[in-house]
Amino acid sequence: MTRAGNPLARGGALWHDRRVRPVEIACDESGSEGENLLGGETDVFAHAGVRMSWPSAAECVREIRARIGSPAEEYKANHLLRAKHRAVLEWLLAPDGPLGGRGHVHLTGKTFFAVRAAVTLLAGDGTDAPARTLHRAGPAAFGAARWQFFLTAFTSVVRLNPRRGVTTSPAEFFALVDELARVPGEAGEIVGRFRGGAERVAAYRERLASDPGLAGVLDPLVPAVIHTVRHWSADGTPVALVHDEQLALTAERVLQLKATLGPRLAGVRFVDSRTDPRVQVADFLAGVARRIASDELNGRGDPVLTTLLKSFVDTGSGWDGPAGP
User: Fold this and answer.
1) pLDDT tens across 169-196, in order?
2) What are the structural domain ranges in the chain?
3) N or C: which terminal CB in the chain sees fewer CB atoms within 10 Å?
4) Please, which residues have CB within 8 angstroms of residue 274's CB and are 6 or more apart in sequence?
């Protein structure tokens, strides 16, 4: 039987028998604010997955504690990000360090994620090129304040329960689309494609209202988890996630993940990061990745740390910044 005719073939990997024991990947995130992509406390979302044995992870945590020497009961990424512990951070991220070949990070630049969601939903274009063009050209083409208002209006329209004080009706939003579409240039041309998106927005809102447990287009968590599983299952071995407790990963969303990933995802189990050293290491990686990427995005990046981080970053990250793959 050819790969094309084999129902177990998925995404270029030939899937093993289901009796093959799945590999456990410990996961955590940093910068999660749900669908609040604009005006929140963080501008980057990072989801990390670590493939380590329990003893190796426990030894890694012990070594970090020994090198840092803080009396804190629970270590977080902030400990590693302090200037006086720079050597420990570089050791952790180095190719020959404890995470070399064992860590993976999916980065999401939140503003770019909102732009890409708009292009995908409103124009029906799931490719990154128009989203990158609009993300880069929008502020200059429309003015920074008008551009920010446009993105905020979009996020309001596609959320059933928008943030207090930020409400835009679909009619108001598409009037704004018409206004911006008249601006000459690539940005105006791309926004012009949104004019036909009213029915898509209505259908999306209806679907979300009928099944509110599904992940919305503005929540970067589910796409990040999908990329994490695809990365670690690329050789055909199914993945079982051991994830830090995360309220956004509801039972409905786990089912959504299983429906999307099929045999790649063997299961999801939630734990307290303080009880599993593997998840604690994933917490370290997610936290330092988010800070390094955010610094780079805002023009205060550290070239050494950015270079070290790149070896961990998923090539499918929702990212349009200089720290991307």
Assistant:
1) 889 999 999 999 999 999 999 999 999 9
2) 9-108+217-310, 110-210
3) N
4) 74, 280
CATH fold label, 9-108+217-310: Nucleotidyltransferase; domain 5 (3.30.420)
Residues 6+ apart with CB under 8 A from 206: none
Closest C-alpha among 25, 3, 17 to residue 228:
25
* C-alpha dist (Å) from residue 138 to 107, 134, 149, 169: 22, 5, 11, 22
In the sheet that 103-109 helps form, which strands lie side by side, from edge to edge?
103-109, 44-50, 23-30, 239-244, 265-271
Strand-pairing partners, residue 240, are 24, 267
What type of residue sits at position 324? G
The answer to whether the beta carbons of residues 293 and 267 sit under 8 Å apart is no
Please give the pLDDT value at position 14.
44
* pTM metric for this prediction: 0.89
Distance CA 28, CA 77 (A): 12
Mean pLDDT score of the chain, rounded to an integer?
Answer: 88
Alpha carbon dihedral 231, 232, 236, 242, in 10-degree steps, equals -130
Under-70 pLDDT residues of the chain: 1-19, 72-73, 162-166, 215, 321-325
> Do residues 105 and 312 lie in contact, with contact meaning Cβ atoms separated by under 8 Å?
yes
| pLDDT digit string, tens, across residues 15-57 | 455 567 899 999 999 999 988 899 889 999 999 999 999 999 9
